[in-house]
User: What shape does this take?
Amino acid sequence: MSELTVIDGATVVTMDPDRTEHSVGHVVVEGSRIRSVSAGRYAPTGEDVALIDGTGCVLTPGLVNTHHHLYQWATRGYAVDATLFEWLTALYPVWGAIDERVVGQAAAAGVGRLALSGCTTVMDHHYVFPRNGGDVLGAEIAAAGDVGVRFFATRGSMDLGRSDGGLPPDHVVESIDQILGATAAAIDAHHDASPDAMVRVGVAPCSPFSVTTDLLREAARLARDRGVRLHTHLAETLDEDDFCRERFGQAPIDYMESLGWLGPDVWFAHGIHFDDNAIGTLARTGTGVAHCPSSNARLGAGVCRTRDLLDAGAPVGLGVDGAASNEATSLLEEARHAVLFARALGGPTALGVRQALEAATLGGARLLGWADQIGSVEAGKQADLCVWRMDTLVHAGIADPVAGLVLGAPPPLDLVLVAGRAVVRDNHLVRVEESALARGAAEASERLRHPAPVG
Ligand code: ZN
Assistant: This one.
């Protein structure tokens, strides 16, 4: 590809500060960044350019996933009619057998699938580190690099085993010292704070019912000390609410506030059971919520109050969550489900299609602290963008292409660029062989179903 690429003639949805849309526009990409975004067709200037015809397409920012557990790609289809706690109890023993090979294969397939749904930045929350499992975090970072997406890895953890009143079995929990040491090492090894970063790292203890108070407090201290972001699951179920009130005498949000876990550098996954007081606290502190509508529905956990969060001014992004609770893992479908579920509960004005697309792009970038570089199609930003084909049988002629994207079936992707480099072309991954990813995922899943006898 030449240094200059022009995508010409597409409908351009920028997500810039004015939320500009060009019914026919063009975008000039120079190296890894966007040079310009303009209305109308491209007028040749004599410069050497690679011209891509975007006629019949809509061009959007690349989608940003803000909550996931890639290793779960190898454990899809378990406990399919269970509550969260039943589902966790069934899966913890299976997850306890993962290692860096399983995680690498699962992550490659999961990231590949996300790229094919228009996702250019993939966040992962990895919190299962079995003894002798090898470098599982390194394995998923390598897999994301092979597919070609931007990656936000978080070093998760669990230190509250069943014998101490927690949910996970004792053999998958670590000590606080192990966790803090390994988290600091992961930041040192992989976190890149530079504007051109392809990998960043955050700190992410698993949830209030699988980690100790001391770990939450120390994790926040470590993250602030290193200038990285904080993430965990919160307010996913009423069981968690009961657990926090019984054990700590506080609602989950107040418990987290008492431990220094609120602020613009923090985002929580799910946030379903926040009351008005909690929503006000999130907005006041700039704490974000990763809304995962499909996973929440799959586990029957409820629906996040997106309308109220947005009205209050709290940052909202979207997440597919792990594939064990969302076998589809399409970020574009999360935007659709966000709209449908919000309206089913809150009426026709509860969430607009453009608000959902914003949550899937700029909103997600904001949660990851990356909105200065990604999340919108603007001059100077990273060239992370999607070109969706809107002239096939399922979308041809639709009056509003954004509605086609959000309310219709996911369209084929003509092109996905990450840092100006093609990751998807003609609806297929460019940099890796899809059939090899599928074989790896099957092998990893099979190994977890039939683990080799120990000893
Ligand atoms: Zn999760």
Remarks:
- The pocket of zinc ion is lined by residues 67, 69, 233, 269, 321-322 (CB under 6 Å).
- The domain at 1-455 is CATH 3.20.20.140 (TIM Barrel).
- The mean pLDDT is 95.
